[in-house]
Each structure stands twice: as C-alpha cells, then as structure tokens.
Write a structure and sequence with these properties.
The chain is an alpha/beta fold and 437 residues long. The strands form 5 sheets. A 7-stranded mixed beta sheet has the order 3-2-7-18-19-20-21, covered by helices on one side. Strands 11-12-15-16-17 form a 5-stranded parallel beta sheet. Strands 5-4-1-6 form a 4-stranded mixed beta sheet. The longest helix has 18 residues.
Length: 437
C-alpha cells in the first residue's frame, strides 16, 4: 500500500476548516495535525521512509468529490467514452466516486451488465464507479426492472435517465418497492409528449431562431407529480439536473414540508443560457436544455439555500462527428467532470465550504456511498481525498481533457480553481494535476 504525507494544506470538511498536514497509511488516514504529528504517525508504522510527500501549499484538502450523474458510455458506445477514460477525467476533477448512468447498450437492468461495469472499473478505473440500475427494463417505461435483485447485489440508486418514467402508476409501484429495499429512485423530469421534436428552451430565443421549443412545464409537471408520489409512498425521490425556476420552487416547498426529496443541478445550468444556441452550435445542446437568466438565478439561489443538494455534472461525451450534425439531429450532452469544481468556484456566490459540501458529502449521502466517500478528513477514515487550489487560474483546452470526446462548451474560457492531487483508496491517482495512469 502507498503511504502519503500531504503537507502545508488547509483541511476543509464537515467539521470546518483548519491548517493541518495529513498522513495516510494502508489506505486510511492515520494523522491530521502538525507536520510532527503526521510524521510521527507514519514513523510509528515504520512507513515514513517510504512515504510519498504531496505538497498542498495554498491548497484545500477535502473529502473527495462524488458525482451523482455521469455517462461513461461503456458498454456499447466506447467510441465516445470508456470507464477508464471517464474515470480518469473524474480523478482529474477531484472525484473519487461517480454514479454511472444506465443508458448504455445493454442498459443496466441486469446483474451481468452491473457486474461488467464494476469489473471494468476495478480493472482500469481511477475512482470508484457505482453503476445506477434502471427503474424499468431497457429504460422503456413499460415493465419494472428487477429492483430487488439489483438491490441485493448492492445497487442503491435507480434511474431511467435520458427518459422520464412517463406512467405515474408504474412510478408509484417502483416507489412502493423502493422504500423497503432501502434504495433511491432518481427521476429524469420530462413529460415526453411536451418535448417531441424540441431542440432548445421554449422562449423568445427559440421563437427568434425558428426552432421547436422545449417548455419548462415539461420538467415541472413531473417534478410536481413525483413530489406527490413521494408524499403518498414515503419513498425518497432524487430529482436529476433541475433546470427551471419553478422546479426549484416546487422542491423548496416539498423540503419545507419534510418530504423525502433531494435534487441536483449541473454546472451548465448555472453558467450558460439558451442564447448560446444563437449560432446553432450543437455543443450547447443538452437535455434538459439551457434556460433563461432567470432560471440560472433560481438555480444559484437553490444551491445557496440548500434546496438543491448537489452539484452533478451530467458528463455526457459524444464523438465529434455526432456533435457536428445539424442542431435538430445532434445528440444532447456536454463534458463536465474536469470543469465542475472551477465553474462552481468561478460562478457561484457561495462559501467554499458549501461548494465542497455540494460536490462531496451531500451527493455521497444521496448515492449511499457515504461509508467510503465524503467522509471527514479524520483519523481512521478512508483516504479518498481531493487537494485543490481555489485561486489557480487555467484555460479550458478541449484537446487537453482526458475524455475521449471533446464536446465542452467552455473551450477557451479561463476559470478559477484547479485540482492538484486526488487520492483514491490511499493511492495518489493524480499528482500535480497529472493522472498517474
């Protein structure tokens, strides 16, 4: 096992902020304190001479980040991304765990596919990859997937992401199964009959461009429906990639009532507006679509007051030829793993501690990964850590990103906040912003 000394950093976790060095041995934190404390802890294990020293000058040492929403494309679409390349991008972004969405080919609706993803991650992954299960078979919205069987195998988050579960009776039944199984259902909120042929947000911009519009109501109706189903069943519901002001209001009211709902927002929904599509560039096409400045303000407010629990990337790689298709034919989706932290620091008027919470221990809890990830930086805890410089400025260059795809809408943009080291299972998988494999 690798032994580490992380020196000259500032620890930031659930317990607050303090100046401390951190010692790691055999995958576990063995000291958090002065340089002498850390060195003595490793010396007591006869590990000091073998320790890798990671400089954290000017940096924050925090629990590793957890992404509730990534598309790793494997199996079936390895030309866009693989578990290896996606997890490398995740590690470079400070993530020690990601939840892999089930819209692969085949979908995550059976044990063999779940085990394939886990095996690939164990073989080549640079972070933990937790496959989400499907709510319905093949994400078709007609028959429930074997929720009990997948839950018994350790799957804890289920979604048909890319599709919303359209049938309210079927969603009710899924929630009734979910509660005793101890699992969480995550909903892609889209009433499909309202979005057929839609290309972008329905508003003045789409009217000016002559493009079919995607109404905010398509999201909000399903948010409302599933809040009521959570009330009826008592089962938790997690809302994926909220994008509208009214959705935020609905979730805020549900939380005020004490209903078991959580939510996430993607960086592109608090940084980019629908007006970015004026040039018909499909790099800005995403599902749900980019919205208005008022929606962005609401998303930011929801993150500030805790209505929105987590920042999740919805990392969605596509090969260049697909994004170069006409706007109405190009697939939706953007890269997100390597820019999430920097966009959050650059764009959100929030204390750094709240940003880290939304990237780390809050999503870890929603994903049921909080036994290993998002843990306090404390003696005896698993060494899954992110070390980042909140003041470092860097420019996004698509060719330098780790993903197999290049569909980032932030090309050429200068951001603030850069991951310097990532430690997964006590092993430094990123050192000085370079992936180690």
């Amino acid at each position: 096992m690798t032994n580490l000394l992380i020196t000259n950093g500032t620890v930031l976790d659930q317990q607050g902020e303090r100046r401390a060095d951190v010692a790691v041995a055999d995958g576990v934190i063995v000291a958090v304190g002065t340089a002498t404390d850390a060195s003595d802890a490793l010396a007591a294990r006869q590990a000091l001479d073998d320790a890798i020293v990671l400089d954290a000058t000017g940096c924050i040492v925090s629990p590793g980040f957890v992404d509730l929403h990534v598309h790793l494309r494997e199996p079936g679409r390895e030309e866009a991304e693989t578990i290896e390349t996606g997890s490398r991008a995740a590690a470079l972004g400070g993530f020690t765990a990601v939840v892999a969405m089930p819209n692969t080919d085949p979908a995550h609706d059976s044990l063999p596919t779940i085990e394939f993803v886990r095996t690939q991650a164990a073989r080549a992954g640079l972070c933990e990859v937790a496959p989400a299960g499907c709510i319905t078979l093949a994400r078709a919205g007609e028959q429930l997937a074997p929720l009990g069987e997948l839950a018994a195998a350790g799957v804890r988050l289920f979604t048909d992401d890319g599709n919303g579960v359209q049938d309210p009776a079927l969603m009710r039944r899924a929630l009734e199964y979910a509660r005793p199984l101890g699992i969480t259902l995550a909903q892609h909120c889209e009433v499909a009959s309202l979005t057929k042929g839609a290309v972008m947000h329905e508003g003045s911009c789409c009217s000016h461009l002559g493009l079919p519009g995607w109404p905010a109501l398509a999201e909000e109706l399903m948010v409302h429906r599933d809040i009521e189903l959570a009330r009826l069943t008592g089962a938790p519901v997690h809302f994926l990639h909220l994008s509208t002001a009214r959705s935020v209001e609905l979730v805020r009211a549900a939380k005020a009532e004490g209903l078991p709902v959580t939510s996430e927002a993607a960086p592109h929904h608090f940084t980019l507006t629908d007006e970015m599509l004026v040039g018909f560039d499909a790099v800005y096409k995403v599902n749900p679509p980019l919205r208005t400045p008022a929606d962005i303000a609401a998303i930011k407010a929801g993150l500030r007051d805790g209505t929105i629990d987590a920042i999740a990337t919805d990392h969605a790689p596509h090969p260049p030829e697909s994004k170069e298709a006409p706007l109405d034919q190009a697939p939706p989706g953007m890269l997100g793993l390597e820019t999430a932290l920097a966009l959050s620091i650059t764009e959100l008027d929030m204390p750094l501690a709240d940003i880290v919470a939304a990237l780390s221990w809050k999503p870890a809890r929603i994903a049921h990964l909080d036994a290993r990830h998002g843990r306090p930086v404390a003696v005896g805890e698993p060494a899954n850590l992110a070390v980042f410089d909140p003041a470092a400025e860097w420019t996004v260059v698509p060719a330098k990103l780790a993903s197999k795809s290049r569909n980032t809408p932030y090309a050429g943009r200068t951001l603030r906040g850069k991951v310097r080291h990532t430690i997964y299972g006590g092993v430094p998988v990123v050192i000085d912003s370079v992936a180690q494999r």
